């Protein structure tokens, strides 16, 4: 069957809702998107493997490979989107609408648009003998748990020499980003009448010391770790929310804190968690409470590809931009764990992502296809 043109592919991808969310009522399957990509890439001669995500019966990754052998290039994009508020959009978020030299729709920028453009770039190589494989990778749940990328690491594939993740970067290469940890501290005390503190164990009193200790830890991290490539050049620790107690005249029996920690490249998530536990757990005995520190999700490691890497040099040459550092997290550290030289570079701006009236500017489309073709030529021919 003839392969659809770029706009037809993009319209079909946007019309297939694939929201991923930690809230079950919002969370959706990505299998319709995977099926579209599978059909188109198979028609181009790619060998396609649909990889179910363990424990997620409605989620899957797609590994589509053209050619054989070692080395090669991965062009990677996630198939899911964030939730949206349709009433805040000027048009239907699940229909591509063109106006003002822009294509509007949920996922046009972040990042179904890249998948359509990667397939368009691949068309030129479908009938050419490749010395190394071209792999188009489509993943599940990047916007929530990153379970798709984690499943790839567990499976140990795909393997290639280099990988480009097409997250929106205005076609400027990205070689570094911070990690992301979301952690919780839960304290179980013992409630009682507030007129006699000896009747209970106040979870809020213990939490006050936890906050002081985490504040001190933040200061130590920021004194020891700096990276001038980042706009915010230090690790950050943000106290996001706290819940505790039920009435002024009762000793607080339970309190929970949730916080976000963003480490710089070179900092270990496991090491940070161990340090936090070592500092906080003694407060349990001191205040006579049960204290638990736990991750809310496994976390995203910080990511860095060396400035002198071959892939970074090629991307800088093709785009005319020096590789940069960004604050948001991606699947890059997971592909890097598979042994690939990895960068982030894709059409559209991160400023349009996760917002009503998300769009992809038309003037980003042909430059993206041209750059991807040159990268495929470099790594696969």
Automatic annotation (TrEMBL):
Please give the SUPFAM superfamilies that the UniProt record associates with this protein.
Bacterial exopeptidase dimerisation domain, Zn-dependent exopeptidases
Query: What Enzyme Commission number(s) apply to this enzyme?
Result: 3.5.1.16
An example Gene Ontology molecular-function term: acetylornithine deacetylase activity
Please give the chief subcellular localization of this protein: cytoplasm
Pfam families xrefs = M20_dimer, Peptidase_M20
A single cellular component GO annotation: cytoplasm
Could you list this entry's UniProt keywords, alphabetically sorted: Amino-acid biosynthesis, Arginine biosynthesis, Cobalt, Cytoplasm, Hydrolase, Metal-binding, Zinc
What does the sequence similarity comment in the record state about its family?
Belongs to the peptidase M20A family. ArgE subfamily.
- UniProt xrefs under PANTHER family: ACETYLORNITHINE DEACETYLASE (PTHR43808:SF1)
The protein, known as? Acetylornithine deacetylase
